[in-house]
Write a structure and sequence with these properties.
Blueprint: H1 2-8, H2 13-25, H3 29-42, H4 50-59, H5 63-76
Helix pairs in contact: 1-2, 2-3, 3-4, 4-5
Amino acid sequence: MLREASARQPNNPVLHARLGDLFEKSRLFGDGADAYAAAARQAPDEFVARPKLAKCHVELDRPEAALDACRRGEARGPSA
């Protein structure tokens, strides 16, 4: 349902972030990284799932992309 909703509303970052959560929990890290990246591009100031995006990149053996996600998150301010 989330895939269909995000296809119908491709500019909705909340749907992409929720889809990323679903993929990450399902261990579909490539799809999760793509969904989180879409959410981050669409609403960079509101995107708070950078640690999950970084985890997806780590699981995909993409350390530089994981570090980039962390650095972008740090640049926006402190997080939990």
